[in-house]
């Protein structure tokens, strides 16, 4: 298994794991539809950002330890969207917290599993 490219493992894990939070905490399009914003389009910012966490983990070398880099990559990608969650009526801090928590979790799991599969902290 150590012959699998680190970047490929991280990217595939990120694509799969990045879809899980949408079934548990969203964001959901209806929260934006009531604000006359096309919610079905707006929520894709979160979906795409969470799916790209694995790719960012795979191309980043700093910090070298996987247990630091994974969560940091999650925060860097989803953190800015948390400000949008904070500004959304009916969402606020709970939504931002769940989105940030899931991003950190995805980053940590991607980096940890990639380390277990490839034996590398980074590419």
Describe it:
The protein contains seven helices and no strands. It has 123 residues and is mainly α. The protein has one domain. Helix 1 packs antiparallel against helix 7 and helix 5 packs antiparallel against helix 6. The radius of gyration is 15 Å and the shape is elongated.
Q: In percent, how much strand structure appears in the residues?
A: under 5%
* Helix-and-strand structural type: mainly alpha
Apparent shape: elongated
Query: How many domain modules?
Result: 1
Output mean pLDDT.
Answer: 94
Report the uncertain regions.
Answer: none
State the helicity in percent bands.
55-70%
Order of helices and strands: HHHHHHH
Query: N- to C-terminal separation?
Result: 15 Å
The largest pleated sheet is described as: none
The beta-strand count equals: 0
Contiguous helical run count: 7
Report the C-alpha radius of gyration, rounded.
Answer: 15 Å
Keywords:
123 residues, 7 helices, elongated
Quick recap of the structure?
The chain has one domain. 68% of the residues lie in helices and 0% in strands.
Topology:
Layout: H1 6-17, H2 30-33, H3 39-42, H4 44-51, H5 53-59, H6 66-87, H7 92-118
Helix pairs in contact: 1-5, 1-7, 4-6, 5-6, 5-7, 6-7
């Amino acid at each position: 298994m150590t012959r699998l490219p680190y970047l490929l493992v991280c990217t595939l894990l990120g694509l799969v794991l990045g879809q899980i939070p949408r079934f548990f905490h969203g964001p959901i399009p209806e929260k934006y539809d009531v604000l006359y914003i096309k919610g079905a389009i707006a929520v894709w910012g979160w979906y795409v950002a969470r799916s790209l966490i694995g790719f960012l983990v795979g191309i980043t070398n700093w910090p070298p330890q996987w247990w630091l880099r994974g969560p940091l990559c999650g925060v860097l990608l989803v953190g800015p969207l948390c400000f949008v969650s904070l500004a959304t009526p009916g969402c606020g801090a709970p939504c931002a917290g769940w989105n940030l928590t899931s991003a950190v979790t995805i980053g940590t799991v991607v980096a940890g599993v990639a380390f277990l599969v490839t034996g590398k902290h980074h590419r």
